[in-house]
Amino acid sequence: MNALLSILLVVTSAFYPQSAKWLEQAEASKPALHHTLCTPVRMVEPHADNTAFQGWRYDASPVTVSEACSTPLRAGQVFTFDFGRHMVGYLTLNTRTLRRCQDAPLRLRVMMGELPAELNTPLEPWGAWLSRGWMQDEVLTIEQVDQPVTLSRRMAGRYLKVEVLGASKDFDCALSSVTFDAVSSAGEEQVRMPDNLSDELQAIYRVSVATLQECMQTVYEDGPKRDRRLWSGDLYLQSLVNRYSFRNFDLTKRCLYLFAALAADDGTIISNIIEQPYPHPQIGSYMITYCLLWNSTLLEYLIDTGDTATAQDLWQVAKRQMEDALSYVGEDYIFDIHKRDVWIFFDWREHEGLDVSAAMQAATVFAIDQTYDLARRLGRTNEVKHYPDIAAKMRRAAIRQMYDAKRGVIFSGPERQLSVQSQTWAVKAGILTGAKARKALTTALADRQAIQPGTPYATHYVVEAMVLAGMTAEAREYLTDYWGGMVRKGADTFWEAYDPNNDYLSPYDFFPVNSACHAWSCTPVYFMQKYPEVFK
Ligand code: RAM
Question: Which of 244, 319, 358, 494 lies in disulfide reach of 422, CB 3.0 to 4.6 Å?
Fold first, then answer.
């Protein structure tokens, strides 16, 4: 029924005549979920600690899980269960009568969380510009003890906090067990971890794999706590890591088809798709950087699978994304970011004034090369003959207008802003190569005034640019410091936002709503597998 609703949606609004068929293809590639039953490994107690990440840590409690699960419940008690790993799925609470019989409902507040501070920071007054509804706390009224209660809401996290809000004194009952049905479509890892990794890199590798595994559901989600949806930019990075881990290419195919089928009225990809109750796009979310990364995902999918039928089927979508991007390019071969109202996302540092014009110029050049490569593999270069010439002219225009030969860096926008992202994308696009690339990256990274990356997403591209520029020792050090910093601060899965110098950084103005298991942060596996000689 839901799939039908979705098909109806595309039939009535589709830009591409094959959209309804594409949606069926997406359904046909939907993976099954694997289930793992998890139980808590220990009880923990929170401690405010300004040396801990975001000011809170958990210590082992002297009470065992079985002692906690036989304690008569009384209002005011708080139990915190530690499951020892990050999980995505469904929580079941079991209660058991210990003495006499139930004479009043039991009232509990349960909360799942990924990080200690998320469970211990007061949430009111709510400070984020995202909904309070993302927090995973629920009030339960249990009318019948001795019956399992399974929460219908899917949750994500490692810790479960149960507060007793109301319990009768005239009978005793205990929270006899808590279990968690953890789900993921990832399955077994198909690729072995390289043998020669240092202990620190091994730890980073493990956390990366866990991050991707948790985000692999019936789509690649960005974060299983939040936003629980499919974003094109996250998909690109996830698909790269999937190659070197679970190799579930059907999931990538499903996601490519969903974006194509649910494109906007003008054929551009909508940046993100919400899967439930039926797949639908977040109407109006037009983000050109992610439109173009969809092309790269299709190219990488083709390289991984050799599935030319799918790539041929979807080629027109890739071409449409490219045409749309080229419509912003003026006679001077500069991408005009003000031409239309569009979201150009490279990093959440956009809230701190990151200027994206130079990075967008470069991202367009990179996309032209990638789309041309796709056309070449599909025998369709005759349709895009002009691409290499445009890319060459855009490269020259970037050097002419944005490159400061004296300082050896790319400046962005009218204020001539210096940022690491501008250099990164210029290197990725081949606008800066060799010694010039090294100089630009080194200068921006060392300059305190330059805008540094604020997310693992942006950092991924920095590490990639370093490798491309031949700064291999620096790339290894940067990756180890950045992702290793999260591991040292207790990450079981990698976080959405991370600044080594600011544990409270939040793109949403309130850190508890940040996602601590975030797709775009899982890429160390990609680097360690793709460049074994660099990361060992
Ligand atoms: C965030 C999402 C996602 C990202 C977009 C731009 O809210 O979590 O990961 O791709 O924004």
Answer: 358
Other Cβ atoms less than 10 A from the Cβ of 351: the count is 12
Looking from the CA of 448 toward its CB, the CA atoms found within 13 Å total: 1
Q: Is the dihedral of CA 2, 4, 5, 11 positive or negative?
A: positive
| pLDDT tens-digit map of 430-476 | 999 999 999 999 999 999 999 999 999 999 999 999 999 999 999 99
Per-residue pLDDT at 257: 98
| DSSP per-residue string spanning 461-515 | HHHHHHHHTT-HHHHHHHHHHHHHHHHHTT-SS--S--BTTBTT--TTS-GGGS-
Q: Please write the tens of the pLDDT for every residue from 213-227.
A: 999 999 999 999 999
pLDDT at 7: 75
pLDDT at 4 over 90: no
* Ligand 1 center to 162 CA (angstroms): 30
User: What is the residue-averaged pLDDT of the chain?
Assistant: 97
How would you write 214-280 as a 3-class SS string? HHECCCECCCCCCCCCEEHHHHHHHHHHHHCCCCCHHHHHHHHHHHHHCCCCCCCCCCEEECCCCCE
- Nearest protein CA to atom 7 of ligand 1, as residue: 227
Question: Ligand 1: distance of its center to the CA of 238 in Å?
Answer: 13
What pLDDT, on the 0 to 100 scale, is given for residue 187? 97
Model pTM above 0.85 = yes
**Residue 232 CA, closest ligand 1 atom number:** 10
Label residue 328 by pLDDT band (50, 70, 90). very high
Nearest CA to ligand 1 atom 5: 231
| Residue to probe by mutation, ligand 1, list 221, 227, 457, 523, most atoms within 8 Å of CB | 227
Ligand 1 closest atom vs CA 234: 10
Could you read off the pLDDT of 202-251 as tens digits, one per residue? 999 999 999 999 999 999 999 999 999 999 999 999 999 999 999 999 99
Q: Among 313, 320, 317, 322, which residue's Cα sits nearest to residue 378?
A: 313
3-state DSSP of 391-457: HHHHHHHHHHHHEECCCCEECECCCCECEHHHHHHHHHCCCCCHHHHHHHHHHHHHCCCCECCCCHH
Mean pLDDT of 125-134: 96
Mutate to test the pocket of ligand 1, among 130, 231, 291 (most ligand atoms within 8 A of CB): 231
Ligand 1 nearest-atom number relative to CA 227 = 8
Q: Which atom of ligand 1 is nearest to the CA of 233?
A: 10
Query: Which protein residues touch ligand 1 with a CB less than 6 Å away?
Result: 222-223, 227, 231, 233-234, 345, 520
